[in-house]
Specification:
The structure is a single chain. This protein is mostly beta strands and about 120 residues long. It has 1 helix and 11 strands; from the N terminus they run ββββββαβββββ. Strands 2, 4, 5, 6, 9, 10 and 11 form a 7-stranded mixed sheet that branches. It is globular, with a radius of gyration of 13 Å.
């Protein structure tokens, strides 16, 4: 198993930006495919983005991300990031970091970090 701790959430006005971080421990980070998910109020958890361990190939839920979010990883820091720009009230959610051996399989999950976009 791997432990994941998200940070960087908070309250932001519409149009603002946040950079979420997910620090990992428990196994070799470079071997893990990483992903970000979110759960909006009253809705099921949904996929946001993922990044491969082997070649840094990325995947996005473009139908709602709309090019505003970027996933990246820093293997030296054992950390995955989600840069979120042009945030909208509908982006309000708990954002979760996840890890797994092969996308789209994710076995380990963080506790989540709250993102609230409100005027």
């Amino acid at each position: 198993q791997v432990q994941l701790v998200e940070s960087g959430g908070g309250l932001v006005h519409p149009g603002g930006s946040l950079r979420l971080s997910c620090a990992t421990s428990g196994r070799t980070f470079s071997s893990l495919d990483m992903g970000w998910f979110r759960q909006r109020p009253g809705m099921d958890r949904e996929f946001v983005a993922a990044i491969n361990a082997t070649d840094d190939k990325t995947y996005y839920a473009h139908y709602y991300v709309q090019g505003r979010f970027t996933i990246s990883r820093d293997n030296a820091e054992n950390t995955v990031y989600l840069q979120m720009n042009s945030l909208k009230p509908d982006d309000t959610a708990v954002y979760y970091c996840a890890a797994g051996p092969q996308y789209p399989r994710f076995d380990d999950w963080g506790q989540g970090t709250q993102v609230t976009v409100s005027s």
